[in-house]
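Retro notes, structure queue

What went well: the backlog is down to a handful. What didn't: a couple of records were mislabeled last round, so from now on we paste the full input next to the output in the thread. Example, using ABC transporter ATP-binding protein from Leuconostoc citreum:
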Amino acid sequence: MALLEVKNVNKQYGSKKAMENVSFNVEAGHIVGLIGPNGAGKSTAMRAITGLMSYSSGNITFEGQPVTFSNHQALGKIGNLIEYPSIYPNLTALEHLKLYAMDTDNPADFKTLMKQTQIDGENFGKRKAKNFSLGMKQRLGIAIALIRNPKLVILDEPMNGLDPQSVHDLRRLIRELADTGVAFLISSHLLDELQKLVDDVVIINHGKIIETATMAAFFSHDKVRWALETSDNQKTINLAIANQWVANMEDGHVLVSGADNLQQVITAVNQAGIDITTMNTVTGNLEKSLLDMLANDDKGE
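Corresponding output:
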């Protein structure tokens, strides 16, 4: 049985369907990316999972226990940072952790958690939150989400306001916790960062799940592409099309796919008297794959 199970969940605001038969699972130790455009239903789903809002029908269970707006028994093992952290301006970081740990029997070690989330810097633990930067508030919000030693952590835009080093450190912390069995459900618009982190993806659009897959399976439908810069890019495109390959211009390069292998492309280009100046293999890109999938889904609407 999955740690978190979301089955056929619906949420409606008047005539608008915010969630329509939403179903997906989160396994222990897995990092799952919940991905979609603004207004797709990501935050609505996260709020329903954490018992912050009701849903019209369907079932949400955590370790087999139901989660509803009026039943929060399972939420003691779930940490979350949704939208903006609830921070009190006149409390320090340490005081926040003590406050949020009051109703749990087994809180995380404050000193260790502050070090893990980088809120143990000089004076940071003593400074009042009203003087925090956006990045500081975000790191404190993540620490609050981890204070209960949760089995599942739900993070909405956790990298918001973080500098590149802090983003790298956060990825490392999440992976370390996942390796111990902690599960994560993460939404972020920074898809290149998310791609480096998640094990599974759940794609949502117009309140409906349009894809659930491992990252490897998600990219498996992507054909290998090669990016070429040549002495005559238009002639290269024409050559590729003549060989019944797919070719188009992107960022000053000719993207070619459909050939059996790269050597076949190089041989054909050289035989046509075209010089290759740069050449790269293009790996799967989460943003491009997502945009392609959303475009196809919108066409089917």
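Agreed that this is the format going forward. Reviewer comment attached to the example: The two ends are 33 Å apart (CA to CA).
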